[in-house]
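Q: Here's a chain of 418 amino acids. Please give me its 3D structure as tokens.
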Amino acid sequence: MNDKSVKPIIMEKALKIIDITGSTLCTRCWGRIFSQDIDGVDNHERGEYVQQMLREEACKNDGLNDDYCYICDNIFQFIEKGLLNDIKKNIYDSGVEFSSFLVGCRVPAEIIQKENYIYNKLDSELESIKKEINREIGKFLSLHMGKEVDFDNPNLVILVDFKTNMATHLEFQLNPLFIEGRYRKLIRGIPQTKWPCRKCKGKGCKYCNYTGKMYMESVEELISPQIIKEIQGTESKFHGAGREDIDVRMLGSGRPFVVEIKEPLKRTLNLEELERKINLYAAGKVEVSDLKIVGKERRSQIKTSSTDTYKVYRAVVDLDKEASTDSLKILNSLDVIEQRTPLRVSHRRADLIRIRSVRDLKVKKLDQERLELIIECEGGLYIKELISGDEYRTQPSVSSLLQIPARCVELDVLDVKN
């Protein structure tokens, strides 16, 4: 396994360890201590090599007895003689679906103290017992359950807590499942997400008729419950690529969204059937399409994508007096817009001046004092304020160009495009 020239060094170190501990070590702990000194498939193989060397040299046999390990108190025997199968059985019994996992563990403080004591005496950095335990349990589960170890984003995290006298406690952490799609909001009067009562903050009071909410329904509440039910999760969080006002419809191909489901027991989904169930439940109010399972990175990407998209709006505008057909042509000059945070959202948004662009605008006269505008613009532009001017906080605006007070009385999002 190793060059003969290093054997005396290994032997010297092994004898020193026996003197330090005054006792014996198990095969795996021998292997961990020599993990940087001896080549091998694993620490068990390295440990057997050290023990065999001690036998061949007919030295202190204290290091060859596996009845008791000074460092780990025979924790590896405990793992191999039944714990591995117990963990596998507990996972099966839980009913959780997963394709990837990661193992973590807690061990008694005494073990860590003994380990550190030996490492300090040897003045060397050695592999920790936790790393060895996690790896061996992971290898067993991967082999016997056909699942993959994932260090970055596992479906399931298994925590094994080794308590006193080797009694164990298992904890399962189910990482969220993320489902992306697009939604269309077909009616006015519902917000995108649940809106807690501004008086009681969701506790329930007379102001909200003891519902805890400002509005009885939301896009989130029409979509998420069906997903939670389907995958047996505990709760959800809704992430949209921007949001429309309560009185604005979201039409066209819909707005991108991601639903984050906490602690999902199931991960195998018939997405077409799920889409059908959601649309049946929310019929006439909200429709979803293009459902797909995505990684957690989409949660943040969706949130930050709003200003990277452009949107198409249909706005019905009332004027204080009639504007001639010729005078309406000036609206085609709307291009770069400087927009200070609107008054209506200034209580919850930073007071900034945002630069946004209008890519295209079409005007149609509906009546003497009513217009229809089709506006294609950069994401993040407040359309109601683009029309009214918002007390000159938005420049230029429909009102300032026409020199006629204008206000948006009806607004629809026709498209959200990347």
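Q: Can you summarize the key feature?
A: DSSP finds eleven helices and 14 strands in the chain.
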